[in-house]
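Here is the promised in-class demo. Please do not try to memorize the tokens; focus on the logic of going from shape to residues.
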């Protein structure tokens, strides 16, 4: 299949299956969860069974007779349950079984929403479950690139892809079923379907929220294009209450359709929101700068998850008192790096002064980095400037 790619999450997923009784792969719809579990993960091809709650007969059995449903699958080495959040009582039944049998890798749960009380899932499986967040494909996965050296922002010293490949990523994104479609018309149709299913079907399955699909659709578009994507500014732009916006943001976060980027406590910012995929953002009207930001945050969050660093590394953004934004603050093992995204093919040294000022004010000895549309790495004063393609 043209969209089938090795996933950077594979090694971590295999490790989790070797020690956790229950493993969960969660992520936005159509990001490749089922493909990873059924086609890419070698140990599960033998001795595993796959069931999806998208099939009405399977869902009915899981909802009405969860204990008997699991008993009928007990001979399998690993039971893969897709869209598990649709059958909340399964989690109680799984807890009872794994409390008796402590073998690792018994259940692999896939979900396109959070497994939370918001989905009426009472049992969190604390101490029994290990979670993996899966994202749309990043550049390194699309082009099957070897792992880059782990460092601040997962950047290489030189370009890892061509400019053409990078621009294609911004246009098409990394949704496995969409980016490889050659026909522009078909790709547009698939993107439109993804948005419709997200706001008109998936969102309505969240039982604890009052959902307005029209507002959700408008909010997705506004998050895609807004230069200052914070809840208050989004509410003002959409001319609806902040309470409504925050409620709908919670819905989109539950569906993994947007990312929340936290502000650094030393700055003046508030949480910012970005779409899960630059191709979807582009389809919704995002400008070039917003596409690059969306791509950058996808790359950072995905690699933090796949390298198991999301609980060890502090990643945030920083806003100065005058409103200038530093897109990345990386803090790990007592070391700090700051990064500024430049959406131009030339280096504006005034933008780099923001990095220096932030370092002097709040981040002593921080490494200063920038990404710009240059062809080769440069050093401008104290700032290491690398090409956009170093994100690969």
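The designed amino acids, position by position:
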């Amino acid at each position: 299949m043209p969209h089938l790619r090795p996933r950077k999450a594979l090694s971590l997923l295999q490790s989790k299956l070797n020690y956790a009784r229950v493993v969960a792969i969660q992520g936005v719809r159509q990001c490749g969860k089922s493909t990873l579990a059924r086609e890419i993960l070698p140990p599960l091809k033998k001795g595993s069974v796959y069931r999806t709650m998208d099939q009405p007969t399977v869902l009915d059995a899981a909802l009405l007779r969860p204990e008997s449903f699991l008993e009928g699958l007990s001979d399998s080495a690993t039971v893969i349950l897709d869209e598990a959040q649709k059958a909340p009582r399964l989690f109680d039944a799984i807890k009872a079984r794994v409390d008796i049998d402590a073998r690792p890798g018994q259940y692999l749960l896939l979900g396109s929403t959070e497994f939370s009380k918001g989905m009426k899932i009472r049992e969190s499986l604390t101490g029994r479950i290990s979670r993996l967040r899966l994202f749309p494909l990043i550049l390194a996965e699309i082009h099957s690139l070897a792992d880059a050296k782990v460092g601040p922002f997962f950047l290489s010293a030189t370009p890892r892809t061509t400019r053409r490949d990078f621009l294609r990523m911004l246009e098409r994104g990394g949704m496995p079923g969409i980016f490889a479609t050659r026909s522009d018309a078909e790709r547009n149709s698939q993107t439109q379907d993804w948005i419709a299913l997200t706001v008109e079907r998936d969102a309505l399955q969240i039982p604890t929220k009052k959902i307005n699909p029209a507002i959700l659709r408008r909010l997705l578009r506004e998050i895609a294009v807004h230069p200052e994507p914070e809840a208050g500014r989004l509410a003002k732009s959409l001319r609806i209450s902040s309470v409504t916006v925050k409620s709908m943001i919670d819905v989109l976060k539950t569906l993994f359709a947007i990312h929340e980027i936290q502000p650094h406590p030393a700055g003046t910012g508030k949480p910012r929101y970005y779409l899960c995929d630059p191709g979807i953002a582009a389809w919704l009207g995002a400008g070039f700068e917003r596409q690059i930001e969306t791509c950058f945050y996808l790359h950072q969050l995905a690699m933090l998850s796949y390298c198991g660093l999301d609980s060890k590394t502090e990643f945030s953004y920083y806003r100065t008192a005058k409103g200038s934004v530093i897109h990345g603050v990386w803090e790990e093992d007592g070391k700090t790096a700051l990064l500024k995204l430049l959406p131009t093919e030339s280096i504006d040294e005034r933008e780099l002064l923001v990095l220096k000022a932030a370092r002097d004010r709040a981040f002593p000895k921080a490494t200063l980095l920038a990404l710009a549309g240059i062809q080769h790495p440069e050093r401008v004063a104290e700032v290491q400037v690398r090409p956009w393609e170093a994100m690969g």
